[in-house]
Design goal:
about 575 residues, alpha+beta, Rossmann fold, Elongation Factor Tu (Ef-tu), domain 3, 8-stranded mixed β-sheet, 8-stranded antiparallel β-sheet, 34 strands, about 30% helix, about 30% strand, elongated
């Protein structure tokens, strides 16, 4: 057994600096030629231990590490890399959550925190863009030394932003502080102030990561010399190789010509490796047409491109194993692919690009108390729409798709809504907006089919016509009124039928509490059956009253209904 490098996920809200931080780390490694040349693996950046020493300089003077370096996952387009799984847990051993110190915690940051919490992944926070603080000057040494040299205004602005961030994290259930003030890293989240633009604080970020990996993760980083296990990051066409997969190998050894079992859209399948490909180290890239090196074998942990037949059947997030015992390996792959959700008879249909994405979405949707009927990896098919259609509750007749396409024969029909997006928080936002709109529409349809309670007061000096029809001004005191409804006085006698409702020369389909409107009333004459200052109730039949008693009404509507029942009983 040997210690492998930890897999470090880099997370954060869009534009908070994920790529810039990694670009700076890559750039500084390429610049320090004497250190072990950094390699940009597939979907990952490998920083060997001597490159770590070169980046950190005096910060690590005299320190020795068993951990051979750091492997940053930086594949673009994947929501929170912690959703990429390894044996049902998170693929990442630890994470860096990048937060713009000016903007603080944003929707994608919240999502990342939720997923890190779910998988219990240890993480640190890179508080980026300190260079944008008014009057901030870049300096040398550790953060406390640099901070001392700032002017009072810069210090004050920085402290305000830092404490605001610490406060928001506390609300999310985390105790956090500046890395140099923390004594117990198991109880507090370290915040490393930095600038990805100027590089200030990057050595401290790398120092904290390697230190935490050495101190707390060594046991988790033991890797076998045996058959490799990994996870598919992306499936893509590569010129000269056909369909290939980019994968992270997190355990064991994988060799050219090995048989591998993978998770597929229709279940596990087996194929034989034709080629293992690695990009050249960053400081060796000369000719882009020769960007890959063919290798005979690779050891965990690393990113690798695999060329093999039938790879179009797999998908991002699927497990990979080098086959040793076919039946046993296929069974393990099937277990790893299974998505454990408490499926419900009534609920939405969920489709996503990867198992990890499904798990992340299920977790977030359950937090919002949204029932799920089916959750699967793959594009949205006609079968999904038909299944969504069978839900009894119209609010569940929806197919939600993350990072997937609609197949050509798919169209919204029979009241089924299809919502897709490539960003999870946009997807949840759109879905919740649709639900609220649909709720209001359903409520409105119900209200049109049943007479709801309403009470109006005949305003003084507002008789515009005495009869045929009478046109009077009223204030809606509670509930609502609609054309076609009959009104009664509070002694139970008829007060006419509403022919139309108008407000500022516009005809309305209804008037609600607080509105003052003109109504045309058939069958009454002002001064005989009705008089100013009287109150009228919407007349409702016995069956509808029974239905209303079983429904959820506002307090005002309930009061009016009670009043109406009393009037009818007395009559």
């Amino acid at each position: 057994m040997q210690v492998r490098q930890p897999i470090v996920a880099v997370l954060g809200h869009v534009d908070h600096g994920k790529t810039t931080v990694l670009d700076y780390i890559r750039g500084s490694c390429v610049a320090s030629r004497e250190a072990g040349a950094i390699t940009q693996h597939i979907g990952a950046t490998e920083v060997p231990i001597d490159a770590v020493h070169a980046i950190c300089g005096p910060l690590l003077k005299g320190k020795q590490f068993k951990v051979p370096g750091l492997l940053f996952i930086d594949t673009p387009g994947h929501f929170a890399f912690t959703t990429l799984r390894a044996r049902g847990g998170a693929l990442a051993d630890m994470a860096v959550l990048i937060i713009d110190i000016n903007e603080g915690i944003m929707p994608q940051t919240v999502e990342s925190i939720e997923i890190l919490k779910k998988y219990k992944t240890p993480f640190v926070i890179a508080a980026n863009k300190i260079d944008t603080i008014t009057g901030w000057k870049k300096g040398g040494g550790t953060f406390p030394q640099r901070f001392e040299k700032q002017n009072e205004r810069a210090k004050k602005e920085f402290e305000e932003k830092l404490y605001k961030l610490i406060g928001t994290l506390y609300e999310k259930g985390f105790s956090a502080d500046r890395y140099d003030r923390i004594r117990d890293f198991t109880k507090n989240v370290a915040i490393i102030p930095l600038s990805a633009k100027t590089g200030e604080g990057i050595p401290e970020l790398v120092m904290v990561l390697i230190g935490l990996a050495q101190r707390f993760l060594e046991e988790n980083l033991l890797t076998q010399e045996g058959a490799a296990e990994g996870t598919v990051l992306e499936v893509k066409e590569e010129k000269g190789f056909g369909t290939t997969i980019d994968a992270i190998i997190y355990n064991g050894i994988i060799r050219e010509s090995d048989k591998i079992a993978l998770g597929g859209r229709n279940g596990p399948f087996v194929t034989t490796i034709r080629a293992l490909l690695k990009p050249r180290p960053l400081d060796e890239i000369r000719d882009p047409s020769d960007k890959f090196l063919k290798v005979k074998e690779v050891h965990a942990a690393c990113g690798i491109k695999i060329a093999a037949p039938e790879l179009e059947h797999t998908f991002a997030g699927a497990p990979i194993r080098v086959v040793t015992e076919l039946e046993e390996d296929m069974k393990k792959i099937a277990q790893e692919m299974s998505i454990h959700i408490a499926a419900e008879e009534e609920g939405i249909i969920l489709k996503a690009d990867a198992i990890g994405s499904i798990e992340a979405l299920v977790f977030i949707l359950k937090e919002h108390n949204i029932p799920i009927r089916k959750a699967e990896v793959g594009d949205i098919s006609r079968r999904d729409v038909v299944e969504a259609q069978t839900n009894a509750d119209p609010l569940n007749r929806v197919v939600v798709g993350f990072n997937v396409k609609k197949l050509p024969d798919v169209e919204e029909s029979q009241g089924v809504k299809i919502i897709t997006d490539r960003v999870i928080y946009h997807l949840i936002e759109t879905f919740e907006e649709w639900r609220e709109t649909r709720k209001r529409e359903i409520e409105e349809e119900k209200r049109r089919s049943i007479t709801y309670p309403g009470m109006v007061r005949f305003l003084p000096n507002c008789t515009f016509r005495v009869s045929k029809p009478a046109v009077i001004g009223v204030r809606v005191i509670a509930g609502e009124i609609r054309p076609g409804q009959k009104l009664i006085r509070d002694d139970g006698k008829p007060a006419g039928k509403i022919k139309s409702i108008q407000m500022e020369q516009r005809t309305l389909s209804k008037a609600t509490a607080g509105m003052e409107v003109a109504i045309a009333l058939e069958g009454v004459t002002v001064g005989r059956q009705i008089k100013p200052e009287q109150t009228f109730l919407v007349d409702i039949g016995r069956e509808e009253i029974q239905q209303l008693l079983e429904m959820e009404l506002s307090p005002d509507e309930s009061d009016v209904l009670e009043k109406l029942i009393k009037v009818k009983r007395e009559k």
